[in-house]
Amino acid sequence: MSKSRSLLPLKTLFISYHASNTILISFLPLYLQFKGLNGTEIGWVLAVESFASILAPPFWGYLSDKYKTVKKILFICVIGLLIGSTIFFQMNTLPTILLMGAIFYFFASPVGGLTDSFAQRRANELNVSFGSIRMWGSVGFAISSLIVGEVLARFGIQNMIWPYLIFGTMALCILFPLKDVTVESEPVNFKDIRKIVTNKPFLLFLFVIVFITITHRINDYFMALYITELGGSEELVGQAWFVGVIAEAAVFALARFWFKKYRSLIFIIVASIIYTVRWFLYGIAEDPMHIIGLQFLHGLTFGVFYTASFEYVTRLIPKTLQSTGHLVFFSVYFGLSGVIGSLVGGGIMDAFGGSALYFAMGCLTAFGTVLLILYHVLPYGKENTIRETE
């Protein structure tokens, strides 16, 4: 069987899962606003999602490593995602939304990290680039953001559960023909986790990048509200995400060419600089079309930053703990950063507006970029590996 055919189910899984995840990232704040929540309350709900993204991914990642399977853990999580979302979207009061949101996201939050870990392992097995697989998630994101944005503009934001369930069901169906990755090591024990919690380069790197990833998550949560603040609609929100993820897909697709030129940390630092410029440009926007026009920078920031960071931490993680380590990284990137970003971002937006929020994000990213440069030039910035200790 050719490489392209063997990867078809995995690529389709990326399309369907990220198509469903797009709906949450792009439109959930607008849905919660429709339910009557203000910016601060929306921040609380998003913080619950982010808090679940801290706790759940390492838990499911550990089970994946322990039982030497990614596919079966994905099955459990996607089924829980479908059931949890059905109940979550029926809730109408803030306490019930928070409660069911926590349960729903306990299953939903690990899926992205597990699929990325799956893709990284499969890429290593077939000697292809991780980005060539991961780009299909961006394709699914782009398709969903464009189509769902137009559908919700026509039929109302209150109906966002239906496209979410459609794409989520597609992801579940694709799991049946998906071939599980091969894990040649012995199943891990809980004591093996010390190899991650005592890995100083890994932990220091996570601490440094959080100053950039916080701003990324704030944009995920509040760009839709900022576009509507500038006079845009659900349709324009979908178009903004479409432009961004098309650029992201191009970066992932071409990763095997540009990624060989320099070390991972060089790309991470360059992407951080572009992040800083991007947020300041968003802050001076006066029309929603300005945001759409600038969204091509999403590929040069998230596309480059995430690909390089994921590859970099893979070098620092023992092979026996790939899923666990990847999902710890994922929980910091999307979980811890999301908790801080959602709570702080909602408060700033309520008090000062979207423009002030993006200026604050630019300042925070600039600080994080300085820390990254220091990390690179100091001993912990060297791209060594700890796999010999496994």
Automatic annotation (TrEMBL):
Primary localization class, coarse: membrane
UniProtKB keywords: Cell inner membrane, Cell membrane, Membrane, Transmembrane, Transmembrane helix, Transport
GO molecular function annotations of the record: lactose binding; lactose:proton symporter activity
Domain of life: Bacteria
UniProt-annotated location(s): Cell inner membrane
Entry annotated with the keyword Nucleotide-binding: no
GO-annotated cellular components: plasma membrane
Major facilitator superfamily (MFS) profile domain: residues covered: 196-390
Record's bilayer topology term: Multi-pass membrane protein
Chain ranges passing through the membrane: 12-32, 44-61, 73-91, 97-114, 135-155, 161-181, 202-219, 239-258, 265-285, 291-313, 325-344, 356-378
Protein's name in the database: MFS transporter
Source organism of the structure: Oceanobacillus zhaokaii
Phylogenetic placement of the source organism: Bacteria, Bacillati, Bacillota, Bacilli, Bacillales
